[in-house]
Amino acid sequence: MSGDRNSAVGEQPVRSKKKAAKRPTGAAAAGKPAKPESHLAMVRRARRINRELAEVYPYAHPELDFRNPFELLVATVLSAQTTDLRVNQTTPALFAAYPTPEDMAAAVPEKLEEIIRPTGFFRAKARSLMGLSAALRDDFGGEVPGRLEDLVKLPGVGRKTANVVLGNAFGVPGITVDTHFGRLVRRWKWTEQEDPEKVEAEVAAIFPKSEWTMLSHRVVFHGRRICHSRKPACGACPIAPLCPSYGEGETDPEKAKKLLKYEMGGYPGQRLSPPPDYPGSPAPPLGAG
After folding, report:
1. What's this model's pTM, rounded to 2 decimal places?
2. In 3-state terms, what secondary structure has residue 85?
3. In this predicted model, what pLDDT tens digit does every residue of 43-67 receive, in sequence order?
4. d(CA 41, CA 45)
5. For residue range 117-174, what is the model confidence (pLDDT) as tens digits?
6. Residues with Cβ < 8 Å from 79, sequence gap 6 or more?
7. Over residues 23-30, mean pLDDT
8. Count of CB atoms within 10 A of residue 152's CB?
9. Are 113 and 90 in contact (CB under 8 A)?
10. 3-state class of 194 per DSSP?
11. Confidence of residue 24 (pLDDT cuts 50, 70, 90)
12. Which string of b and e fits 127-138 if b means at least 16 CB within 10 Å?
């Protein structure tokens, strides 16, 4: 990365050490039908995308604030159908009130619901949090288990949440298929599957297991910052030459640059307590600004 990693809001977007990617040329740019891509060629292209994303986002990380496996598990459950930012703004008060599974299992439901209300669906989430906390207390000695088969038995915990916890709290490789990940891997033609478990299986077959967790972070980072759902910033995308869906979004470089989000666009990220190497600014606490 070039430039100051502690750049403030409003400074130039963070850039990779590599030069900006050239726009696609040849048959794709001319609108001519492309030759069908072999599976081997797709695998090679996918792995190159991963390598290039690693240069663009060397600081990629989970965008939920946490200090231990229990906090990450709770934060991930809360992140359903809301932003990581809103979760991060909510969890300081939550963990101050209920720092352990034993504390959360014994919570007064109405008080817990009021604290997590900003994350939405607070009644259902409160039931899940109290249920998983009771299970941790009763079945796992108050500790978060480090196995997928144990995690998915907890109330409100599916494979996505389990892989987030395993990869980032226990160092167990896993692929996290959230909406960003699924959208991008389909745009890149790594898979045509819609079911998250099938997406996970097909993408896992492309990459070494050691890459799974960081691949997930890089893809999600790219989806949040550049390859947006409704209007991808194609003209500002560093991997445009490798993307078979180039042109779905804004291709004009100057217009695309205005679509960049978070530190790529000079704005704060989602964590109130980001890692030391994060090049943008911390997010504000709840109610600030």
Report:
1. 0.88
2. helix
3. 999 999 999 999 999 999 999 999 9
4. 6
5. 999 999 999 999 999 999 999 999 999 999 999 999 999 999 999 999 999 999 999 9
6. 64, 87, 119
7. 45
8. 14
9. no
10. coil
11. low
12. ebbbbbbbbbbe
For residue 60, give both structure tokens: 């990629």
CB 226 within 8 A of CB 236: yes
Give residue 17's pLDDT band: very low, low, confident or very high (50, 70, 90): very low
How far apart CA 161 and CA 181 sit, in angstroms, is 14
Burial class (CB in 10 A: 0-12, 13-18, 19+), 12: exposed
H helical segments located in the chain: 27-30, 39-56, 69-78, 84-97, 101-105, 109-116, 122-139, 148-151, 159-169, 179-187, 196-204, 212-225, 253-257
Contact 206, 220 (CB under 8 A): no
Helix (H, G, I), strand (E, B) or coil at 263: helix
Give the pair of three-digit tokens for residue 124.
């259902």
| Structural contact between residues 15 and 279, judged by C-beta atoms closer than 8 angstroms | no
Q: Which two tokens stand for residue 99?
A: 């720092």
Annotated catalytic residues are: 160, 178
Helix, strand counts (H, E) of the chain: 13, 0
Give 250's Cβ-side CA count (13 Å radius): 17
Residue 167: which residues within 8 A CB-CB, separation 6 or more? 173, 174, 176, 212, 213, 216
